[in-house]
Amino acid sequence: MKILVIGGTGLIGSKLVAILLQHGHNAIAASPATGVNTITGEGLAEALKGVQVVVDVANSPSFEDKAVLEFFATSGRNLLAAEAEAGVRHHVALSVVGTHRLAESGYFRGKIAQEKLIKASGIPYTIVHSTQFFEFLGGIVQSGAEGDHIRLPAAYVQPIASDDVARAMADATLAAPVNGTIEIAGPEKVRMAALVERYLANTGDARSVIADQQARYFGALLEDDTLVPVRNPHLGAINFDTWFRRSRATL
Ligand SMILES: NC(=O)c1ccc[n+]([C@@H]2O[C@H](COP(=O)([O-])OP(=O)(O)OC[C@H]3O[C@@H](n4cnc5c(N)ncnc54)[C@H](OP(=O)(O)O)[C@@H]3O)[C@@H](O)[C@H]2O)c1
Fold first, then answer.
1. Quick one: pLDDT band at residue 250, thresholds 50, 70, 90?
2. Cβ(58) to ligand 1 under 6 A?
3. CATH code, residues 2-249
């Protein structure tokens, strides 16, 4: 199959393109770095010629409320219109577990807008909802940083390794569209603060972690289970310890 991966140079996109190529598919990484821009439309129609499946794993360069909403709305509109024109048969997108419970957050309002456009497009689709990537732990630490401590929600997370996400995205890409949402998560459900404590200890970071029910996650207040799957998720195999050991080994 000819498969266009929007955001194919990113963390998930580059791993996904590699897996699809290994399976003998003609997978193409599309992003501004390869001359395809879903915001300006540059290179899009040309890149979509003969493409059967599009996978959207792009992310907004800015997480500022207005910028992120504009990114996902504009990118989604341009991409889906070009796909309809090109006769694409399956649109696969990566979003986040709990997105619809997180509308207080500017980032998640962007993801809600992206998903709404997909569902209204008339193109057969599969939305994959993933939990937080282990690779995003540094971003979570940064989001809660206050001097010599990190203030984070008390809620649960069930993080997943990007290698497991890319494999699940490849499975969804090669399967028939479900016209709905699939959930994926890591093997362990843990309190966000406890996980971050482990992460800081492993990286030799002396800052302490405060679990605070009133602390916001990218602008949103969390219930215990806001960020964890509600249905029967597909579980990745890689746990925190394995991920951490492997990520150190590749440094
Ligand atoms: N982080 C998490 O924990 C998490 C959890 C669940 C779901 N997700 C979702 O996973 C997806 C992928 O995340 P990631 O961490 O793999 O992203 P990433 O590494 O930041 O990569 C983003 C990709 O988007 C591309 N891009 C940016 N602007 C673009 C444009 N105008 N047109 C086309 N492509 C553009 C970038 O291209 P260049 O390299 O050319 O700039 C890059 O390939 C996101 O949609 C995110 O919402 C993330």
1. confident
2. yes
3. 3.40.50.720
